[in-house]
Amino acid sequence: LYPSFNYSLPLNLSLSSSNSMNLPPDKVRLLRCYDNEKKWELICDQERFQVKNPPHTYIQKLRGFLDPAVTRKVSDSHKFRRRVQESTQVLRELEISLRTNHIGWVREFLNEENQGLDVLVEYLSFAQYVSEASTEERAVDSPWSRSIEDLHGDSNLSALVSRSNTLPSRKTLKNSRLVCKKDDVHVCVMCLRAIMNYQYGFNMVMSHPHAVNEIALSLNNRNPRTKALVLELLAAVCLVRGGHEIILSAFDNFKTVCSETLRFEKLMEHFKNEDDNIDFMVACMQFINIVVHSVEDMNFRVHLQYDFTKLNLDDYLEHTESDRLQVQIQAYLDNVFDVGTLLEDAETKTAALERVEELEENMTHMTERLLDTENEAMAKIVELEKQLMQTNKELDTIRDVYASANNQVHTLRRIVREKDQTIRRQSRLERHAQEGGGGTLVVQGGGTLHPARGEGDGGCQTGPTLLLLLLLLPHPPPPPPLCSMESSGPLPPPPPPCAPPLPGCGGSPTVIFNSGLAAVKIKKPIQTKFRMPVFNWVALKPSQINGTVFNDIDDERILQELNVEEFEEMFKTKAQGPAVDVTLSRHKAPQKGPNRVSLLEANRAKNLAITLRKAGQGPELICRAIQTFDMRTVRVDFVECLMRFLPTEGEVKMLRQYERDRKPVDTLSDEDRFMLQFSRIERLAQRMSIITFMGNFQDNIQMLTPQLHAIIAASVSIKSSQKLKKILEIILALGNYMNSSKRGAVYGFKLQSLDLLLETKTTDRKQTLLHYIANVVREKYPGVALFYNELHYVEKAAAVSLENVVCDVKECQRGMDLSWREYSMHGHNPLLKDFISKHETRLQKLQEDAHIAQDAFDDAVKHFGESSKTMPPSVFFPVFVRFIKAYRLAEEENEQRRRQEQALMEKLEQEELQQEQEAPKSPSNRPKQRQQESLITELRRRQGGKDSRHVYEGKDGAIEDIITGTPTVRKAHSYKVPSSPSAAV
């Protein structure tokens, strides 16, 4: 069949053959994977079907038809008719070649040497002129070359144009009616369509200055098929990026050439007058739909829409009754922009916006009021801060007075102590003088008296002499504190140290006391505006300053006298940011408040401060409210937050130790002072629990009571429902019928078996066992169909966890017992008494409901052969919820299926009756039925598909897909505009 493969063939033959096949890249890769024998067979097949005529053959023939000299020689009508037939045949062969030959042949036809596109456009212009001349019977002196001159301005056509002025004659125009009757224009447009089916040719046609204009002018042809072809091609071009503008420009040219008053005027005339040709009307309506609604700019769409409205398109569509046009008409109407409706929507939106603006204004007023309130609160806070500062100052004054008075008291005590010592010494001397018998006291160094000894016996002076000496001696000075002296008793303890001043108050800065050294003043760090370089000196320790020249130096005073800004500017390091405003920071520093001592952990103290800030109450008021169970002062949510800050054992020890050390409480932070007062409350945890219970009791009752009621009602209704019992009886019967031959009959089933009804399907897989049961109930037991109406509160009960509810009830009882104990053992608090008297009865009723719910649920579960331990309410009730939902859905689907079957039956009966009536008139109506079925299939395909435009991906054959696959335009917003002129949608 094929000639033998010659392995000596050059490789480029295979490559050129594969290129001539015009295959996509994936097919080319597949072709290269074939063996040599398979490739040779494909090459032989390709060579067999190739057209042998080169492109220049057709171009020469077309140029011959366009030559006026040749046309002038053909005077006989028979010869002219034969020549017209030859031109039509040449165009048909050219169209087949363009459509079937490989891309290399098409490129050769379009290259600069052959200029096939220019020749085709020139011939199309010639054929259109002949058609117009034969239709309108123009004057003989009207040159047909005007259309050709509009095509090109280059020198290649100058000879042709100059010769064309001598072409027309009355005999030629008379014979041109033969040209008009032929399909030259139609076939020429087909040739352009074949060229545009290739990406390379499509780009050339789009870039040609007059090709699209001549295609649009072909609408003047009298052949409806030609006009429909032109409209389809123009609609395809319109769906390309940039193509819409080209089409509108072509119709602007059409308006100028044909002297139209309005754009698209001739098109609407053809559309209205040729209503007998439905294919042309469909193509025309399709083009109108695409050209109007394929643009994204809404204003431009309204403008194009109004162009056709002025041509009475809307009125014509209202009176059109063609069935084939309904799809296109409906597509056009779906995309129409009704400006009046849009205006109404805009007005409605304006009203809504005004309402929104009014609400925003109200919210602004509320915000302003809130700001005013905050400002008032801030002013009050500032006033309280001022009072606090004044109080602190008064406290400092009192402390100073106390320190001064304390010093005076110590001085007085010392003087009194010295007087006492003198008196005791004097008493001892007098007693010693009386016991010594007239001895003489001798005053020795240091002011001490000693008895004077005699010359012989060492006796003392007499008593009067001693008294005289005592009177003449001066009063001895007070002894130093560390001097050892005789004393009749121990020295009194030293006075306690003076209390330190409050932080932040005026006074001397903090100092360091070293043993045996003078006080050293602590220097504060200096905040500079700029970063300064480091001065690497060797500093003295504070212990080394005493006794040196630096002891009396005040460098801070020197800094106040110097210009430190200039110093910083001169010595600052490079790459500095903006200067830091030290003055502002100094002004803001006092606002931070004094440094406080904190005993709590940092994060815990921070969280506690946030919680206290939310309360808006002082620590004393909060602690007093907790002690007295005052729910009006402290909210429940605040107490619940405060439960996290119950003082731990370690914190209590630290606070008690701080108090035992008699350290000032004012130096503690606000959180520590609150914790100090908070920890002093007796039975703090118990009181907090009672307050939480009291605050949440009403909410707990309102939450638990409906849940218990739902459990009771659902359990009782399920247990007592006779209709549900009948449904289960039907299920048991059908199940035994299905299983008895294999597994034997059963006497009952677990409730989870109800879920399996949806998994058991019929043979055709269209229905389930539950659908069948619903049909049985509807036909045989209609009184049982509404069994789900007897099951009350099943959905609510399915969402209840009975175990959690019972635990909550027990928690309520423990809270009430704790309240009773606190009331009876630790003082009769009136608030506790009032709470207990009001809510004890309600708690007893809640407990009774809990017991009833448990018993009712246990009975219901046992009624269906289940256990409450393995099947709690959260599992038991959802089984019935799912079953009811599935049963009702099965009923709806059965009803829908019955309606569909009934409608189909009525339709079949109506069609059968209609066929019986039409049988005598038209015995064979199968083609019409096929057409209707095809139309229905097409409509279903379009309705089922997405409203999107197919993107022209720049591949060959895409323009044909656009024309054949886009008979209508769907919603305008679904179109995607491609990114290149070769990408059509």
Number of domains: 7
Low-confidence stretches: 7-13, 72-78, 137-181, 440-517, 582-593, 934-953, 967-985
> Mean of the pLDDT scores?
71
Rg (CA only): 57 Å
Question: Could you describe the largest sheet, including whether it forms a barrel?
Answer: 2 strands, antiparallel
For the termini, the CA-CA separation is 44 Å
Total number of helical segments?
A: 40
Shape: flat
Strand content: under 5%
Tell me which oligomeric state these chains represent: single chain
Structural class: mainly alpha
- Strand adjacency order, main sheet: 1-2
- Number of β-strand runs: 4
Descriptive account of the structure:
Pfam families: Drf_FH3, Drf_GBD, FH2. Residues 428-458, 910-985 are annotated as: Disordered. This is Formin-like 2b. Residues 435-448 have a biased composition (Gly residues). Residues 938-958 have a biased composition (Basic and acidic residues). There is one protein chain. This protein is mainly α. The protein folds into 7 domains: 11-47, no CATH class; 53-222, no CATH class; 229-335 and 969-985, no CATH class; 341-443 and 462-469; 528-584, no CATH class; 602-681, Methane Monooxygenase Hydroxylase, Chain G, domain 1 (Up-down Bundle); 722-790 and 873-921, Methane Monooxygenase Hydroxylase, Chain G, domain 1, CATH 1.20.58.2220. The protein has 40 helices and 4 strands. The strands form 2 sheets. The chain has a two-stranded antiparallel ribbon with strand order 1-2. It has a two-stranded antiparallel ribbon with strand order 3-4. Strand 3 (511-512) and strand 4 (520-521) form a beta hairpin. The chain is flat, with a radius of gyration of 57 Å. The model is unreliable at 7-13, 72-78, 137-181, 440-517, 582-593, 934-953 and 967-985 (pLDDT under 50).
